[in-house]
Amino acid sequence: MSDVNETSDGTVTWRELHAETVQRLARGGSPTPEIDARRIVERAAGFEPAEFAVGLDTLATERGVGFLDRMVARRLEGEPLQYVVGVWGFRTLDLHIDRRVLIPRPETEEVAGLAVDAARRRAERTGREVLVADLGTGSGAIALSVAVEVPRARVYATDVSPDALAVARANLAGLGRAATRVTLAEGSWFEALPPSSRGALDVVVSNPPYVAADEPLPAEVERWEPSLALRAGPDGTEHLRAIVAEAPRWLAPDGVLVLEMAPHQVASLAEAYRDAGFDVAVHVDLSGRERAIVGRRRGRGERR
C-alpha cells in the first residue's frame, strides 16, 4: 500500500504519489523507475500525457490510489509496464493490450508503416478500394493502423488464437467509422480468409512468430508474453516461409507482401521471396538493422 503521508484532512496529491512511486520502483529494481512511475500515475489518475504536469497538484481519489498500488505491485513482480497499464500507443492508436497478445514494438510500427504506404500507393494507382490482409493480427495493431490511415482500404485481420482476437475485437470497438472496413477472422494464416479473396488481395502483411524454439529470450519476454506468438520451429522461419510460399496464390498481380523478421533471417527469406516470384526490397528498423521485406508479386512474363 502507498506509504505517502496524508495531510491532516486525509488527502494526498498526485505529485506526492508520483514521487513515492518513483522511489518504490527504484527500490524494487525497476531499470526505468521515472518512466514507469509517470505512466502508472497517468493511468491511475486518468491523465492524458499533456495533462500530467498540471494534474500532479490535484488530489487523488481513494479509488485512484488503490489502482496505482495494484499497478505498482504488478510492476514490482516484473510484469512489463505495457501490460501493467493495459493501454499502449502504436502509431496513431491507443491499443488495449494484455498477456493474450504481444507487446506492440517500434519495429512493428515501422512494418505497419510499410503496409500503409503499399496500400495507399495501390489505392492511388488503381483509384479503387484496396483489399489488405493482416495475418496473425494479435492486438490488431497493424490491421487497425491500415484501416485508419488508408480510408480506401478494406482489411481482414486474422489470428489462430481466439484470445488474441478478443483483444483485437476490443480495440476494433474503439476505432470509430474505420471499424466498418475491418473484418476479424479466426484461423491459421490464409486459411482464415474467405475464398473470394483468393487472387484478389492487394497487400498482405504479417508480424508472425520468428523466434527459434531454443533461442534465448529476455526473462521478461519469456515469462510474460505468449509463446504462441513468439516461437516458430527450429530456426524461427517456419511461419515466414509458409506465408511466402502461399502468398502468390492470394495476391493480385503486382500485389505486395510485407513481413517482419529477425535480421539474421533476412537474407534467406529474401531468396525465398524471389523463388516465389517476388521483386524484393529490404527495409531496416530504427536501429539500422534489416527487419522487414517488401515484395511485389511479379506479373506473368516478368523476369526475375
Write a compact overview of the structure shown.
The chain is 39% helix and 19% strand. The chain is an alpha/beta fold and 304 residues long.
Explained architecture:
This protein is of the alpha/beta class and 304 residues long. It folds into 2 domains: 14-85, Helicase, Ruva Protein, domain 3, CATH 1.10.8; 99-297, 3-Layer(aba) Sandwich (Rossmann fold). Helices cover 39% and strands 19% of the residues. The protein contains 11 helices and 9 strands. It has helices at residues 14-27, 33-45, 52-55, 62-76, 81-85, 106-126, 141-149, 162-173, 219-224, 238-246, 266-275, and strands at residues 87-90, 93-96, 130-135, 153-159, 182-186, 201-206, 251-260, 278-284, 290-297. The strands form 2 sheets. A 7-stranded mixed β-sheet has the order 5-4-3-6-7-9-8, sandwiched between helices. Strand 4 (153-159), helix 8 (162-173) and strand 5 form a beta-alpha-beta unit. Helix 1 (14-27) crosses helix 2 (33-45), helix 2 (33-45) packs antiparallel against helix 4 (62-76) and helix 6 packs parallel to helix 7. It is globular and about 70 Å long. The chain starts with 13 loop residues before the first helix and ends in a 7-residue tail after the last strand. Mean pLDDT is 93; it is low at 4-9.
